[in-house]
Design a protein that fits this description.
Rossmann fold, six-stranded parallel beta sheet
């Protein structure tokens, strides 16, 4: 069973769904929670990427975090108990992902997490809390990057259940480029803007600074407006700032329309995790209006800069990156993730290894963490029977080779 609920999930599960449907040994059930429920935020993505219609639509809709989580859990529980899948696949860090993962484990159905191990280390972000919860209860972890892979190992997850598979966003972007072509449509310079996170748009002063910063940039700023952002702009009476300025508010876009605009743009300004990935894969300079990111490799490779919600900083950083030559995209993430995920699932299923094995403390005792430093291989962590480190007693081993990630790389 594959759970979807929001724009990023529709896009990033495309290649996995395609690989599942192409394999006769697998019967896949698609469930749409309805977290994003209008056409622009939902149906258009199914149509553009030829994703088959969901088998179940839970019609959850938009609510505050607690109410939405409760509704998703209650409605998904009925479907999970009816279908009784061998594995529940979830993607990313949304409320739909966290709520259905938790429900699935309660129903004793193992969870596979696509895009596991991403960390911003900011517990004020709902998405970060979701990531931690999902990874802590998932049976299989599909990491999109080396950074996320090593995050999972460092946190002590069983290395036999952590897989570096590549980034499904790269699969979707490659398909999108194939569908739209890669010849530019526009000669003018413009920036593409997406701002929607609660920390930015629910805070009056931060949203004001961001809008003032956009207004100060010497180019057109095309701003597909998220419903949440539109609501706050009207509540805070900020339309007077936007009217007659270089900021052009447009309706939410489908994936291909947005991809074409981003492909033609000279600058991307965002607070979205997914847009950071897509922009870097296209080689676009990006200002991320956040104090942290779960995609640090986009910064280390020189595509992305974190900026505060400060009008002067947004103005100066935009001027700085626009003075550079546009970078050619490189192999930031591996493609082919969707097929690797399905191959791993099949391999584990054939070994009857999809779920966790019950820990038998009669045989093993209570697991205690032991640490031994090894000059050659770094550090080894293991659960031992008596607390002392012996290789024969270790049940799970995480072997970490520490490597320095340089900013200039």
């Amino acid at each position: 069973m594959v759970i979807l609920g929001t724009r990023p999930e529709f896009i990033k599960t495309w290649s996995t769904l395609k690989a599942l449907d192409n394999h006769s040994e697998i019967e896949s059930i698609v469930v749409h929670t309805g977290q994003h429920y209008d056409f622009e935020m939902s149906q258009v993505f199914f149509e553009e990427l030829s994703i088959r219609e969901p088998d179940y639509f839970l019609e959850v809709g938009s609510h505050d975090l607690t109410e939405q989580t409760i509704k998703i859990m209650g409605r998904s529980k009925k479907v999970i108990e009816e279908v009784k899948p061998d594995l529940l696949l979830v993607q990313g860090d949304t409320n739909s992902t966290m709520a259905t993962a938790l429900t699935s484990v309660q129903c004793r159905v193992p969870v596979g997490h696509i895009e596991a191990g991403c960390r911003s280390y900011d517990l004020s972000m709902p998405e970060e809390l979701n990531r931690i919860v999902i990874d802590s209860i998932s049976a299989i972890h599909f990491a999109p990057s080396e950074v996320s892979y090593h995050n999972l190992l460092r946190e002590g997850h069983n290395p036999n259940r952590v897989f570096l598979v590549g980034n499904t966003a790269k699969d979707a972007l490659d398909e999108g480029i194939r569908l739209i072509g890669n010849s530019p449509l526009k000669n003018e310079q413009f920036a593409i803007v997406t701002i929607h996170r609660a920390g930015n748009v629910d805070n009056r002063s931060r949203l004001l600074e961001i809008l003032q910063g956009l207004k100060s940039i010497q180019m057109r700023c095309i701003f597909p407006i998220h419903p949440r952002t539109k609501k706050r702009i009207n509540e805070f009476e900020f339309m007077d700032i936007i009217n007659g300025s270089n900021i052009e508010l447009v309706n939410p876009m489908g994936y291909l329309s947005f991809l074409r605009l981003m492909q033609d743009s000279q600058l991307v300004i965002t607070d979205s995790g997914g847009v950071q990935e897509e922009a870097a894969l296209l080689g676009k300079p990006t200002l991320t209006v956040r104090n942290n990111t779960e995609w640090p490799e986009t910064i280390w490779r020189g595509y992305n800069i974190l900026v505060s919600a400060d009008a002067n900083e947004i103005k100066s950083r935009a001027k700085e990156v626009l003075s550079r030559d546009l970078r050619e995209p490189d192999k930031l993430y591996q493609s082919g993730a969707g097929q690797r995920i399905v191959d791993i699932i099949l391999s584990m299923h054939r070994k009857n290894a999809l779920g966790f094995k019950q820990l038998d403390m009669i045989q093993t005792g209570y697991p205690q963490l032991a640490l031994s430093t090894d000059q050659k291989n770094g550090a080894m962590f293991g659960f031992t029977k008596n607390g002392s480190f012996t290789t024969s007693e270790m049940k799970y081993i995480v072997l970490l080779k520490y490597r320095k990630l340089k900013m200039e790389e």
